[in-house]
Design brief:
Blueprint: H1 10-20, H2 26-40, E1 46-54, E2 57-65, E3 72-73, H3 77-85, E4 89-91, E5 109-117, E6 120-129, H4 137-153
Antiparallel strand pairs: 1-2, 1-6, 2-3, 4-5, 5-6
Helix pairs in contact: 1-4
Enzyme class: oxidoreductase
EC number: 1.8.4.14
Family: Belongs to the free Met sulfoxide reductase family.
């Protein structure tokens, strides 16, 4: 694990994201957010959304990076764990995570934030890094705050 993580000014990113998400459209806003995070958060090799389009299954949504795994069941991988538990998953070494799905062999760590409206899971935001131990608690809290901006500024439909 790396002892030094890049520092990111999440308060500034939050303000920028609030200005960037200038429509209520979920496709536009999730696409913009994936691109924004991919460009602004250092040391990522994938950033994007998986959306719950059917019971206990996540389907690929807007993303930045290499082609991705699709679909992902709630019992599979880090994204499935976040969807199943409704809790953010911060994994320092994905190769040590039981049931990890290796979409990109270069990925070493992962941060997955569930997106819920009330008690209904809408989907997850998934971030991958080629660096082990890339995501700390400050990244988790910062990305969770960005996800809250998305939820507040977007009309996320019941079914997509």
């Amino acid at each position: 694990m790396s002892n030094t993580r890049p520092t990111t000014d999440y308060a500034m990113l939050k303000r920028q994201l609030m200005a960037l998400l200038d429509t209520r459209d979920w496709v536009t806003n999730t696409a913009q957010m994936a691109a924004f995070i991919f460009q602004q958060v250092p040391d990522l090799n994938w950033a994007g959304f998986y959306i719950q389009r059917e019971e206990r299954v996540l389907r690929l949504g807007p993303f930045q990076g290499q082609p991705a795994c699709n679909p992902i069941g709630f019992e599979d991988g880090v994204c499935g764990a976040a969807a199943r538990t409704a809790e953010t998953q911060r994994v320092e070494d994905v190769h040590a995570f039981p049931g990890h799905i290796a979409c990109d062999a270069a990925s070493r760590s992962e941060l997955v934030v569930p997106l819920s409206i009330g008690d209904r899971l809408w989907g997850v935001l998934d971030l991958d890094s080629p660096l082990p131990g890339r995501f700390g608690i400050e990244d988790q809290e910062g990305i969770e705050a960005l996800c809250q901006v998305l939820i507040e500024q977007t009309d996320l439909p019941d079914r997509v």
